[in-house]
């Protein structure tokens, strides 16, 4: 009997303990408050009602996202840009703690007990940031409007042929990579008490493509040579042609190693200005044509090149002597046959300037050249070529009679030499060319009394057209 009584007492005690434990567990799991010692990014939320916490959390996040954010631009003179965290694309998220709190109120009693018992003490407020939002506001277009555009440095040739420079204008631009890092670092990871967040935008100096340093590095330091020839400036085709070709060359810059091509100059001149009628050289004779005078530009340029010591790539003399230069120092042009080319061998850039005024065509080179070095030219006639006699039939003359219609002109074989001077003393003498100017035949009319034409000396075939771009139709 005693054993039964003892067993009853034990069972009753166990039942009472289980009932008490269940009651404690139910009470523990059914709490509507947050467990003790819980913090979310320094905010102590322990003991708060879960529902009240949700409401306050939403309000705090909204307040945090409304935090003023100001971009300042240092001493650039640009006004600050004001915005907020939310307008910058910042969104805060406390979803992890809300999910964990939901587990305290859902599931079996045992699940809720475990969730509350193991509830973490420290939680972090997280944020998501759409990086492109600020870029869409502070666009390159906004930068240009706010800071302006960079302006290239300018080089000009002033009065007295002085080389002068106008410095470039630099502007500010945003260092976008550093800017992104600064914004990310400035976004609060904890609860912010509404103070304005301000960052000074990192700026970098933006230079234009052409700076004074880059221009000076080209080496256009001074006028290194000038050469002029005379021409009669009038309202005629030749003046137009000379001045048009000169304008095309004016301000041309050759880089080191560049080859000047007169054929390209003539093509561009014809496109921009067109050529007018003026005498050209056709098979050794002056005849009406289009573009007459363009070889005065190439010949004047040739003499400037010679006196700068540059390399002549391609050049030929006229078939006839020209009036504006000594024989041996001219450079003709025949489209498709003869060109004038030279190479910039100064090692620096070379600027060509031209003027055609006061009956003078002047070509100037600006660049780098040893001021102690100069060049002069000498020519020597090594052979005089006597004119041949060309006969034409004239039946109006008496049989056996003859009449001189045109006296011939002598031709020449000429050597040209470039002499290099150092401090005025000759240090080098170089033969540049051997040129032949064909003699012009004496034209004689005869009547031999026969139908056969008189015999004439055999003529060497020359270029069809010189010193122009088009001639008359001789067919």
UniProtKB/TrEMBL annotation:
Region feature Disordered, mapped onto this chain: 444-475
Record flagged with keyword Signal: yes
One matching Pfam family: G5
G5 domain sequence ranges: 370-452
Coiled coil: none
Protein name: VanW family protein
Cross-referenced InterPro entries: G5_dom (IPR011098), Glycopeptide_resist_protein (IPR052913), Vancomycin_resist_VanW (IPR007391)
The keyword Signal belongs to this UniProt entry's keyword annotation: yes
Keyword entries, A-Z: Signal
